[in-house]
Amino acid sequence: xxxxxxxxxxxxxxxxxxxxxxxxxxxxxxxxxxxxxxxxxxxxxxxxxxxxxxxxxxxxxxxxxxxxxxxxxxxxxxxxxxxxxxxxxxxxxxxxxxxxxxxxxxxxxxxxxxxxxxxxxxxxxxxxxxxxxxxxxxxxxxxxxxxxxxxxxxxxxxxxxxxxxxxxxxxxxxxxxxxxxxxxxxxxxxxxxxxxxxxxxxxxxxxxxxxxxxxxxxxxxxxxxxxxxxxxxxxxxxxxxxxxxxxxxxxxxxxxxxxxxxxxxxxxxxxxxxxxxxxxxxxxxxxxxxxxxxxxxxxx
Length: 300
What we know:
Strand content: under 5%
Radius of gyration: 19 Å
Number of strands: 0
Number of helices: 11
Distance between the termini: 64 Å
Structural class: mainly alpha
Shape: globular
């Protein structure tokens, strides 16, 4: 019973992060399931089964708050489903350790780019509102779905990162569209795992506990994303990706504990500094937009 309560709390926290930043549910939940001894395929299958419910609740909430671009959802969901089904089938037969280092390096690079871009530069307005083309969204959806199924999470880190980096869709709609399209991906991945490992490898009671927590958090996260400034939201997304994948890389490389914690500390300080920079920059931009004078403009 204690395990189920803890899993529900993890599901709540993971969905709160995922629904407000467009990523984090799969990575957080899968990490916990692996830590308590579940095999990679079973962990990913259990998480994706829970995500059928959490992503449906999240999509409904984001739609209510106007956070969804349905054209983006349509262009992402189908290739994402194909990638997720193939990834689930592959993971059912291959060790996830082979793909983990490559995924971590890729996501770390993308996360670093988003972190620097949003903390050091203003949100581009010259590209905002331009339609995202199918030739960009189709391969993106396929790769994100493949990574999500193989790694137990990745739809958000890959999809949200790439679309945020394009500067063509405001962050709250990036988050809402990614969260909504993930429902189709979760269904496809679950089908692939059911075919690959059968029901014996899935813990339905654990999936229900994750689902219960996620459903509670979904409306709150969809409301929260409307309040977080775009620049701060982008920086937080980048920091989340960087911190998660630095941890993955240090575990794969197997460096000494002392050096590992030193790396964690330096990266955490850098992310905190980037977050503070984004907040200060947002305040200055808001003051300028309101016709107020920034501190630099005040005569000494």
